[in-house]
Design goal:
The protein has helices spanning about 15-20, 50-65, 80-95, 100-115, 135-145, 160-180, 200-210, 215-230, 235-245, 250, 300-310, 335-350, 360-370, 380-385, 390-400, 405-425, and strands spanning about 5-15, 25-35, 40-50, 120, 120-125, 260, 265-270, 270-275, 280-285, 295, 375, 375-380. The chain is elongated and about 85 Å long. It is built from 16 helices and 12 strands. α8 crosses α12 (about 335-350), α9 (about 235-245) packs antiparallel against α11 and α9 (about 235-245) crosses α13 (about 360-370). The strands form 5 sheets. Strands 1-2-3 form a 3-stranded antiparallel beta sheet, covered by helices on one side. The N and C termini lie far apart (about 75 Å). About 45% of the residues lie in helices and about 15% in strands. The protein has about 425 residues and is of the alpha+beta class.
């Protein structure tokens, strides 16, 4: 194992006026520390709120320095220090453009939550990494992190939230392995089970499969939207567009008029709305998959709706957004369309179930499977292209079970039976 023992070579106390003006810890103890393994010297700083605390800490370090004692891995191999280095690693990957802001922010927050959990009457951030086992992570950390308040005002986090917390834990220990403090990652063994209404067996498997969306429900939903909103703005058109094109919110919010080819009744998807940092969103030509720059066919009725909206819209130039806010800017999230347009339309249409904005894509997938399948052999290549999936495998996993023909199965059974009779006779 890597020898992370260090010795202190120099200690100084500094006062930061800028931090004092902000009412922050302004008394700093600056130490030059030499790593015995690599012989490298680094500078470490500890800040304190009062001068007395800083002087006491510096005095302690100087006594150990004179006695020739070694600063061991007390701070270097704690979970809190590893989490700090892991967040720095995430920031570096974000700066290099390898991860998006939302991913970096979520994992950093999960790492902080893990540090705040309690173990042996002290914060988990002070726990020694070699002392942390899989049992500790499952019984203490994951349990405490799961039993936190959720966004709906209740207690307990969902499956996706727990997976994010597990990813953060695994990342912290992976960082410790990169630093040479650990050899194995105990968080790799954490299992998160998704339970659906305490049902088991076939019922659970049936629920995990995406059910077919009825096209009659789509028509009712679009009609209800036009009855509610009429021609006030573009909320009804945005809902109808989402149902009939299968675009995600990030794609639809970035669509401009020049991307709609009215002559050939198609849409060319190029841009997406992407979060680049906290409270900062912008339109980027960055693909989520290899088939992001794809062509999506538009129905004649949808073409008519778009032409009518363009005549009413104050933003009808080629580079203007098709579905902007009334100020002309793009929407940041789908909250407005979901709460204002979709939810009201669902109540008006009386469909009896709720939908997220992203689930409107499945209406378009239903149309694609119905139109582009012959003799139960769907054109999966084309469906994959227009849906924007990364591969045909993803498309098949989502929609192949929609192809159901009882008559075909009955005929296949009879043919198999005839084959067996011929063999026996």
């Amino acid at each position: 194992m890597h020898d992370s023992r260090k010795v202190v070579e120099n200690v100084k106390i500094k006062f930061h006026k800028s931090r004092a003006a902000k009412n922050e810890a302004a008394h700093a103890v600056v130490m030059k520390i030499r790593d015995l393994a690599s012989e490298k010297t680094t500078t470490h700083t500890r800040t304190f709120k009062t001068e007395t605390e800083a002087e006491d800490f510096a005095a302690t370090i100087r006594v150990e320095q004179k006695s020739g004692s070694v600063v061991d891995r007390t701070n270097n191999n704690t979970f809190g220090e590893a989490a700090k280095r892991y967040k720095q690693h995430l920031q570096q990957r974000f700066d290099e453009g390898k991860i998006v802001y939302a991913y970096r922010s979520e994992l950093s927050k999960c790492a902080d939550l893990a540090c705040e959990t309690m173990w042996n009457n002290k914060p988990f951030a002070k726990a020694k990494l070699p002392d942390i086992t899989l049992g500790v992570l499952e019984d203490v950390v994951m349990t405490q992190m799961k039993n936190r308040p959720n966004k709906r005002g209740g207690i307990g986090l969902g499956h996706k939230s727990m997976k994010a917390r597990r990813t953060a834990l695994q990342g912290v220990f992976k960082q410790a392995i990169r630093d040479g403090i650990l050899r194995e990652n105990p968080a790799l063994g954490i299992e998160i089970h998704k339970v659906r209404y305490n049902r088991q067996g076939v019922e659970v498997e049936r629920d995990t499969k995406l059910q077919t969306f009825k096209l009659d429900d789509m028509s009712k939903l679009i009609d209800a939207s036009y009855e509610i909103f009429g021609k006030k703005w573009c909320d009804a058109e945005a809902l109808s567009f989402a149902c009939q094109t299968g675009l995600s919110f990030q794609e639809q919010a970035a669509i401009t008029w020049k991307q709609i080819d009215f002559d050939h009744s198609r849409l060319i998807v190029r841009d997406v709305v992407r979060q680049v940092q906290k409270n900062c969103f912008q339109i980027e030509d960055v693909a989520k998959s290899d088939c992001r720059h794809r062509r999506v066919p538009l129905s004649p009725s949808l073409i008519t709706e778009l032409k009518e909206w363009r005549l009413r819209s104050p933003y009808s130039q080629a580079n203007d957004l098709v579905f902007p806010q009334q100020c002309g800017n793009h929407y940041r999230t789908s909250d407005h369309w979901r709460r204002f347009s979709l939810n009201h339309s669902l109540i008006k249409a009386q469909l009896g179930y709720s939908l997220s904005w992203h689930e409107l894509r499945h209406f378009f997938a239903t149309m694609c499977v119905a139109v582009f399948s012959k003799d139960l052999k769907a054109d999966w290549t084309y469906i994959t292209e227009v849906m924007g999936h990364t591969s045909e495998k993803v498309t098949r996993e989502h929609y192949v079970h929609w192809l159901d023909d009882p008559e075909r199965d009955r005929d296949a059974g009879e043919r198999l039976g005839q084959f067996r009779i011929e063999k026996v006779s």
